[in-house]
Structure formats: C-alpha cells, structure tokens
Amino acid sequence: MIERGMAFASARQMPSSTGLWLRPASACTLAMVLAGCGSGDGGGNEDGGGGSTGTSPDTTTGTTNPTTTASVGTTGGPICGWESGPCCDGSAPCMDDGFVCIEGTCAPPRAFGEPCTEDTHCSSNLCLDSGHCSQACTTEGDCPPAPEWSCATLDGYPSLMCQCTSSGPDACDGHDNDCDGTVDDGATCEEPGFTCQAGACACAPSNWCDGVCKDLASDPENCGACGAVCDASATCVGGHCLTTLASGQDKPADLVLRGGSIYWTNNPEGTIRSVSIDGGVPVTLASNQLHPTHLTIDATHVYWTTGGDLQNGPGSVMKVPLEGGAPITLATPTLPWAIAVDATHVYWTGSDPNAAVLELPLDGGATTTLAGAPSSPWALTVDDSGVYWTEYGGVRKVAKAGGTVTTLVEVDIMQVDDIATDATTVYFTTHSAVMKVAKAGGAVTTLAEQGFPRGIAVDASHVYWADQDNGFIFRVPLDGGSIDTVASDQFAPFDVVVDATSVYWNTFSGNIMKASK
User: Fold this and answer.
1) Element at 7 (helix H, strand E)
2) How far apart are CA 287 and CA 293, in angstroms?
3) Residue 143 and residue 164: Cα distance in Å, rounded?
4) Strands laid side by side in the 235-237 sheet
5) Three-class SS of 10-25
6) Which of 182-211 are b and which e, b meaning 16 or more Cβ less than 10 Å from the residue's Cβ?
7) Is 350 exposed, middle or buried (0-12, 13-18, 19+ CB in 10 A)?
8) Can you tell me the distance from the alpha carbon of 268 to that of 281, in angstroms, rounded to the nearest whole number?
9) Which residue has the higher pLDDT, 384 or 183?
10) What does R_g of the chain's alpha carbons equal in angstroms?
C-alpha cells in the first residue's frame, strides 16, 4: 500500500489495504479526517430523525447525490427523496411528486417495455407477466408487430392493453419474441460476420472480404478490417488485436513508452521494469525502491518518484539509465507524486503537508518551487513553455520560469485526475467525465461521461482512457462523437499510453497489455 499521509489519502484515489485503487467519498482535510470525515455516514443519522441532509454514493458516476429525509411522513414514517437509496418500503411514501417506490428507491414510473415486477412500477399501471411494462391500445397496430402481441381487455383493467405471451429470447425474425417492447432486441446470427438486419441474418457490407463474409470482431486474419492480421501471440477481440506483453507484475501503477519499449513501476514490489512492445522477458531496471508510483522518460533515463512513509522517511525523485544500472537520487522531498521531464529539468508535484509544483536540473542541484500550496496536486505534464497539473478542484498551469498560476478549469464537485496535452489543448479526466480545455483557457468541453475514467492519452485523432471500475479501454475523437471500445473485460485498468499503431495499458491483476488501434 502506498502511504502518503492521511490528508492526502482522503482527497485522492489511493490503494486500499488489498492494493486496489480506490476513490474517496469526499475531499477531507486532515482535521476533518480525524473528526470522522469520509466515514460513509453522510453526516446524517440512520433513523432519519431531525430532518437531516447528507450524501449517498452514486456508483455510476462516482459523485454524490443529495439525500433528504424528514422525521415523519404522511403515514408516520420517513419520506424518501430522489436517488436517496433504499429508504422507501411502501409505508414510507416518496416526497417527489409522481415518483414511485421501485426496489426500495424512489424513481419515476417506467415506460413501455421497461422491466417491472409490480403494476405500480409502470406509468400505465400494467406490468405484464413477462416482467415488462405495457401500455394502453385501441388496435393491434398500437402494439409491437409480432404474433406474441395482441390488443385486448385484461381482467381488472378498464381499457384495452397491449398483451404479450413470450415465446423465448428474440430471434432474428422481425418479432418481439421476449415481450420487452423491442423487435429483434439482442438477436444474433450463427454465421460468422452475419448480423440481424430487418428481421433476417445478412452479412454486413463492411464484413465482405474478397467475396467472403468475415467476422471482423474476432477473425485474427481480418481483425477490425479486411486483411488486418494479428500477430501470432495476439487474439482478435472486438476488432482489435489484443496482446499480453507481460503478466505476473505486482500491481503496476504507471506506464511510459519510448524507443520500442514500455516501462512501468511495480509499486508494492518496489521495481522499475521494461519490456519490448513486441513482447518478451521483462527487464528490471531498478529494485528496492520504496513505493515507486509515477514515472517519466527522456532519451537516456527513466525518472520516477517514490512515496516514502512515516517509518522509512521521505520520498525521493530518482533516475536510472534506460539500460539499467545504479539508481541516482536527484532529490528527497516530502511525499513527491506526479513527475514530468523536458530537455533540461525534472518537474514533480509535492503532496500534503507541503503541496507544491517543483523543478530541478536533470543532473540534480537546487530545487525551485514553481507553484506553492496547490490543493492535493495529482497528474503533471509539460510543454515547451509551461507546466500543467490537475488538483482537487481544477486544472492549473504556470510558466516554466515560474510566476502567476493560471486556472484553466475550476471544478466545484469533481476530483480532477489524469492529464494529457497536444499542441493546443489540455485533456483530463474527472471522477465522472473525460473533458478538454484550450491551453489558453476558455470553454470546457465534455467528450464522454463515464463512471470513473482514469489514465488518459491522446494522439492525432483520438483521446484514450481506462474505465477502471468497469474494465474497459475506450477512445473518442478529439472533437467528441461516438465512443469506441478498444478492449473490455480488463481487471481494473489504470494507466494508458499510445504510439502510432497501438494502445497500451496496465491492470491491477498484473498485466501489461497492448491492442491495435
């Protein structure tokens, strides 16, 4: 586990006692932590007495939603609010007008075709035996076009209702076989490359390769496109050639890429390692490091920070030649974290209680503070003229010569995490979105809304990130648009880097992965 101080851990996503990277429930100062901040009680009481207001976690976005309770409802119990969690049970009515109690949570009634278990869950007040909401009708044409559906009177209901008798899962036949209100929903075809189109299985136009229908999602000889061949060690998954470059690593925490090799830190084990982007045996460049986390690279050296702890002393800023050798200590600051490098200097962020953005020459020397007292600085990057970083509440920049800190983004409720730049734009992740802003400042654009996006990378056409909670690697065009899945079923992916042809990431389970773009 990386130990970086109680105040820092409360405001950052840190490894748990099992090593999993966790996000905090709230931003807590040290004093607040000692007083119980982040304990999960939301600041309210359990029985709802006294009319308390607290927060409850939203597992979809990683943010918090207001929870309102009153001491006595119209039936003598607590009154529940929107997204307030499991607090309504039939005896406690929902305070929001028109909301109903569904599985213990107040929510809007559901529309035609949506799942239900009781009539009260549906806006039509009719839940079919198939477990889906129905709707009123006057003719058969008001219901889905399938023999399973009819428009008829149902005992106990005053008007005609769409009724359905399920014949099983949807087949590719133009019918709503499973009674969920959608025709051919989820229907598949057995023939490789064939998809369900207008009620019949047919080869998608893009899947015709030399007159033969191919499944571009899984065919290693035609992976993602006709003639795109995966390496012998790769598998074709979702139209991307997927390769495991290294496995069995000890919770790898950060990645960099240069000269045909990829480098990473094994945090609990205390090593810096590399492997060829074509695979092979990993090489250990440095060992016996105390919680190495973030790293960066130039033409001759790999640089990293070590976290340090209360028992073993402060952290350090380190470097080692690309081919390995004796590690060199450049500085021993208190709790260093993110790190970046240019042609002349190393830059890093220091954490609480001495939060700052600092620099020193590549070969060591005097340390210069570029920006003092940021709020829990996290990720860091540099360009020809400036240093950019994320912290709790925003994205900032300062000139390499120091001076006034400029705020590019001010965020009130979202933790800002990782950062990447191109020639004109800063891209960053928060606890609920992938966003961008011009280096000169201005309007902030949301490129994607996600449960908890992490490591971010950018190339000439796309932004890439890891969905740590759900195990995906995604990408989206630089100007926004359709989100493409690069990989799925990854165990807690954390960091992402890219080159001209491939995407690379690490997983909590100890894999260094590669996928074709």
Assistant:
1) helix 6-10
2) 13
3) 9
4) 235-237, 240-246, 512-516, 502-507, 493-498
5) HCCCEECCCCCEECCC
6) ebbeebebeeebbbbeeeebbbeeebebee
7) buried
8) 20
9) 384
10) 27
Q: What is the spatial distance between Cα 504 and Cα 517, in angstroms, rounded to a whole number?
A: 10
Percent of the chain with pLDDT over 70: 80
Res. 248: pLDDT tops 90: yes
Predicted pLDDT at 431: 86
Cross-strand partners of 336: 350
Contacts of 220 (CB under 8 A, 6+ apart): 229, 230, 234, 235, 236, 241
| Contact residues for 231 (Cβ-Cβ < 8 A; gap 6+) | 241, 243, 278
H or E stretch including 58?
A: none
Q: What type of residue sits at position 28?
A: C
Distance CA 176, CA 158 (A): 25
Q: Determine contact, residues 425/436, Cβ cutoff 8 Å.
A: yes
pLDDT one-digit tens code per residue, 288-326 = 998 898 999 999 999 999 986 656 667 899 999 999 999
Whole-prediction pTM: 0.68
Q: Is 34 helix (H, G, I), strand (E, B) or coil?
A: helix
d(CA 155, CA 358): 75
Distance separating the N- and C-terminal Cα atoms of the chain: 33
Tell me, what amino acid is at 164? C
Confidence band for 36, pLDDT divided at 50, 70 and 90: very low
Answer whether 451's CB lies under 8 Å from 470's CB. yes
pLDDT confidence tier of residue 31, bands split at 50, 70 and 90: very low
Q: What is the tens place of the pLDDT at every residue in 497-517?
A: 999 999 999 999 999 999 999
DSSP string, 139-194: SGGGS-SSTTEEEEE-TT-SSEEEEE---SSPPSSSS-TTSSSSTTTT---SSTTE
Angle at 490 between CA 485 and CA 491, to 5 degrees: 145
Per DSSP (E only), the strands in 225-363 are 235-237, 240-246, 252-258, 261-266, 271-276, 283-286, 292-297, 301-306, 316-321, 328-331, 336-341, 345-350, 356-361
Q: List CB contacts of 242: < 8 A, sequence separation 6 or more.
A: 234, 235, 236, 487, 513, 514, 515
H or E segment and range at residue 467: strand 462-467
pLDDT confidence of residue 414: 63
Is 118's pLDDT higher than 50? yes
Residue position matching structure tokens 């065919």: 219
Alpha-carbon distance of 406 to 398, in angstroms, equals: 6
Query: CB neighbours (10 Å) of residue 86?
Result: 11
484: phi then psi, degrees, rounded to nearest 5? -105, 135
Instruction: Indicate the residue type of 91.
Output: S
